[in-house]
Write a structure and sequence with these properties.
Elements (H helix, E strand, L loop, with lengths): L17 H12 L13 H9 L6 E9 L5 E6 L14 E3 L4 H14 L9 H4 L15 H5 L15 H7 L6 H9 L16 H14 L3 H10 L24 E4 L2 E4 L9 H4 L2 E3 H12 L6 H7 L15 E6 L2 E10 L2 E7 L6 E8 L8 H11 L1
Antiparallel strand pairs: 1-2, 1-10, 3-6, 4-5, 7-8, 8-9, 9-10
Helix pairs in contact: 1-13, 2-13, 3-8, 3-9, 7-8
């Protein structure tokens, strides 16, 4: 088994790929009233989108819509199967790959203060990681963050129910997890393709540690969580619990519902470990897309999608064109029991955050999420 994580890192393959999610979002939102503006807010449609829960697919969901065109917050289903306890709209949840927004934001801020160079190479920051006889082309930090690095994923089936239940409390050393991908050699020349996954962000976490001399989680807390006043957001390290108010996640098996809420998130680390709330994710996306948290140059870097076939990802964030000229920016993320998304218009007219407690890990965009997205943007 992979060795235990080193204590100085503790604060800190089958992903739900965003490309098919983008296609699903686009299909769900074709009826949008205007290509350039968001339609009027539809509270009844949002309420109806979660009213039928729990069902065979999900036990509960929470939704937050905000912006200059109107706001709504609500939930459906139950926070705990077997009870009537409602899902709290401001409850915490495992955000999964939305963590990449936090890691990318921290990297941009570190670069802005001269502590990290996004155009410097992984070989410079981590000279012992990549065998030069195998990885003959330089890989930049920027390429880690926009998924054009070419390093393979670790290959562990972490969203397979049997594997998850056996290993849910294991502690993983991120360097050892990265080595599983590195051992497979480059998948393509850096900068020639965009292939979404966790590996770039696991390596980016190691780079941040090498550049700062501190755990990557310190950078996320110091550069993102504290400056933005994200009160519900934290990096759990090895703690398998979710602190505070939260809905439980479940996996529906042949013998009933198995509670999968508790899990040691060290395997996900800088790619997918964060616990947060809809309120905090709303605030984070607003800061990334507008205001003075990022400089104009940093925001341009954040939203710079490589000119490559099928590319939709910038630095931790993704460009989703719902209809011609109607673009939102955001991120999806999932962990067993939790399937989430955040998306918003650059002008601040509408932001959507949702978390659905799905009953089957590692699946496609849920029907509940599709209903919520359609109600928010069409």
């Amino acid at each position: 088994m992979i060795s235990a994580a080193r204590p100085d890192r503790l604060p800190g393959m089958r992903k739900l790929l965003l490309v098919p999610v983008v296609a699903a979002l686009t299909a769900a939102l074709v009826p949008a009233a205007s290509a350039a503006t968001v339609p009027p807010l539809r509270p009844d449609a949002l309420r109806a989108a979660v009213a039928s829960l729990p069902d065979d697919e999900a036990s509960g969901a929470l939704v937050r819509v905000s912006g200059t065109a109107g706001g709504w917050r609500g939930s459906g289903g139950v926070a705990r199967i077997g009870t009537r306890q409602p899902v709290h709209p401001d409850g915490r949840f495992r955000v999964g790959s939305i963590t990449k927004l936090f890691t990318a934001a921290a990297a941009l801020k570190l670069a802005g203060s001269g502590r990290l160079d996004l155009d410097q190479t992984v070989q410079h920051y981590l000279p012992d990681l990549l065998d030069p006889a195998v990885f003959t082309k330089p890989i930049t930090v920027r390429q880690l963050l926009d998924h054009t690095h070419g390093i393979a994923g670790h290959g562990l089936p972490h969203k397979d129910p049997a594997w998850f239940l056996e290993h849910r409390y294991d502690t993983f050393d991120p360097l050892e997890v990265v080595k599983l991908g590195v051992a497979q050699g480059p998948q393509f020349d850096p900068g020639t393709a965009q292939q979404y996954g966790n590996m770039g962000y696991l390596v980016a976490g190691l780079v941040i540690e090498a550049a700062t001399g501190r755990p990557y989680g310190d950078a996320v807390r110091d550069e993102v969580i504290r400056p933005l006043g994200l009160r519900d957001t934290y990096l759990p390290g090895t703690d398998p619990r979710i602190r505070g108010v939260h809905a439980h996640g479940y996996e529906l098996t042949g013998t009933g519902h198995v509670d999968v809420t508790e899990a040691n998130p060290t395997l996900q680390w800088a790619a997918a470990e964060v616990v947060s709330s809809a309120r905090d994710l709303d605030r984070l996306l607003a800061a990334l897309l507008r205001g003075d948290y990022l400089t104009p140059a940093q925001r341009a870097e954040l939203m710079d999608v490589p000119d490559l076939p099928g590319a939709v990802h910038g630095l931790g964030i993704s460009r989703i064109e719902l209809t011609p000229g109607f673009v939102v920016w955001g991120k999806t993320g999932d962990r067993p029991g939790y399937n989430n998304g955040v998306a918003g218009t650059p002008d601040g007219s509408r932001t959507l955050v949702y978390s659905v407690n799905t009953l089957h890990m590692g699946g496609e965009l849920s029907a509940t999420a599709r209903r919520v997205i359609a109600a928010a943007f069409s």
